[in-house]
Amino acid sequence: MSVDRDLVLKVDNLQTQFDLGRRIVRAVNGVSFEVRKGRTLGVVGESGCGKSVTAHSILQLLPKLGHITNGSITYYADGKETVLSKLKKNGSEMRSIRGKEIGMIFQDPMASLNPVYTIGNQICENILQHERISKQEAIDRAVEMLTLLGIPRAASRLKDYPHQFSGGMKQRVMIAIAMVCNPRLVIADEPTTALDVTIQAQILELMKSMQQRLGTSIILITHNMGIVADMADDIAVMYMGRIVEFGSVRQVLGSPRHPYTKALLHSVPTLGIGKHERLATIRGNTPDPSDMPPGCEFAPRCDFATDACQTVPAETDLGGGHRVRCWNCQGG
Ligand SMILES: Nc1ncnc2c1ncn2[C@@H]1O[C@H](COP(=O)(O)OP(=O)(O)OP(=O)(O)O)[C@@H](O)[C@H]1O
Ligand SMILES: [Mg+2]
């Protein structure tokens, strides 16, 4: 029997769509990946490719029109497996996992913090919902967490409302809410975009040290290739709802195989690039998600497309966990 004791999350052929009357948006189209204990999976890809919808599907936080139409999401803890995709959205089981077992740092802190409750209330609520401790202990934990995240005078700022915090500070509150219960898995959706680089580095360090201390697993969604290179163990490159390339950081960044991954890497600015050298861009735009081209979704933008690309590429296993969806990337 080969039970993978390090497995924390398994997403298998996930399909999530939005039914918008006459249009259907296939936001996530057959995504599969695994997350292991103490490991970080980086998820990258252009805007609109399904990164956030994948994250929201895991925690059953999809908006009304969004539905998981196929596949499964399984969470493993203490020898028990829970099929999250079968749980009731707001049932007690899902609520006990959300926030306690799996913490989520949302991309948009404004939309996720409640304007009518104080910052302190919102952090403490998460603690008190999941742990039997006194209100004072919860407050102490909240202060400790905000201080760690670099908020000055944290104790007095707990009484403030979200509108009294700057964008970057609100983002740190989101991080505090996600991490304060020491979840086994943190899903961080662009956790540091609104922060200046020094705070960003500090927060990434904090996440790393939490990971080392507690063996936390992290799904890190970001546009920033530098951050994935620094933080991730594995990388999933998404394009139009599919993972087009998956592998270790060394495989994906060191020997990328999919033309889309290569193009993404070429469009990253590097320090020292000459002022007159132009950064590569990926030609064209992402297609309308409710009117996708037949075959490989990247083909219309791909310099290497052939007739074969009229059919959706099957996944090729390149060995060692490296897999790619491209007809022209097969073989060693
Ligand atoms: N509430 C919604 N209603 C309809 N379509 C939606 C909704 N939320 C997301 N979508 C669509 O699902 C697709 C995937 O969106 P998603 O938010 O996952 O992108 P993303 O990869 O997170 O992009 P970004 O990098 O900009 O955050 C997009 O085509 C988007 O328009
Ligand atoms: Mg997003």
Identify the notable features of this structure and list them briefly:
332 residues, four-stranded antiparallel beta sheet
Overall description:
With about 325 residues, the chain is an alpha/beta fold. The chain has helices spanning about 50-60, 90-95, 110, 120-130, 135-150, 155, 165-180, 195-215, 225-230, 250-255, 260-265, and strands spanning about 5-20, 25-35, 40-45, 65-75, 80-85, 100-105, 185-190, 215-220, 235-240, 240-250, 315-320, 320-325. The protein contains eleven helices and twelve strands. Helix 4 (about 120-130) packs across helix 5 (about 135-150). The longest helix has 18 residues, at about 195-215. It is globular and about 65 Å long. Bound molecules: adenosine-5'-triphosphate and magnesium ion.
Put the structure in a nutshell.
By secondary structure, the chain is of the alpha/beta class. The chain has 11 helices and 12 strands.
Evaluate the radius of gyration.
20 Å
Approximately what portion of the residues adopt beta-strand conformation? 25-35%
Q: What name does the CATH topology of the domain at 7-89 and 222-270 and 278-329 carry?
A: Rossmann fold
CATH superfamily of the domain at 7-89 and 222-270 and 278-329: P-loop containing nucleotide triphosphate hydrolases
Tally the beta strands.
12
Largest sheet: 8 strands, mixed
CATH class label of the domain at 7-89 and 222-270 and 278-329: Alpha Beta
Mean pLDDT: 90
**What ions, cofactors and ligands are bound?**
adenosine-5'-triphosphate, magnesium ion
CATH architecture of the domain at 7-89 and 222-270 and 278-329, by name, is 3-Layer(aba) Sandwich
Question: Which consecutive residue ranges, at least 5 long each, have pLDDT under 50?
Answer: none
